[in-house]
Predict the structure.
Amino acid sequence: MNIAVYCASSPALIPSHEQAARDLGAYIGAHGHTLVYGGCKSGLMGTVADAALAAGAPVIGVVPDIPTIKQRQHEGLTEYRFVETLADRKNVMIELADAFVALPGGPGTIDEISDILSLIRLDLISSGCAFVNTEGFYQPMSDLLKNIVNAGYLPQEYRDRIFFSENVEEIGAFLEK
């Protein structure tokens, strides 16, 4: 399975977030999956890629032609896909992936995973997505989705394809079913 992971390229300030990225990368490799991600060597992006590579996973970096991102390009990946824009990167990652995971991150991560939520709602992708909810990082998102369901803007059947957990093994089991 190709697993797209969205996360921060900024340096991790919270050790548990970095550990979650290591655990997810190790899980991907240990279970014979491929990591698809934004191609950076810094922050949680670099951590998840390094852990996946160390665990024997193929890693595909999707790198847009943006100087601040190209400066941080990881130099040891299995494969690279070079694209023009951030929008192109999102589209290529979606095309390559069978499942989607958000580690902690900032506005870019929220932008990317929000696209996945919309695609789930529109039945344009059949897989689910998971949020690595380390120390409750994504609890506000979980609460927001509950409010959206309660208001009638998202049927529960679609919400059931969105999973929150701190436990990478639980996330993996969810994605593999």
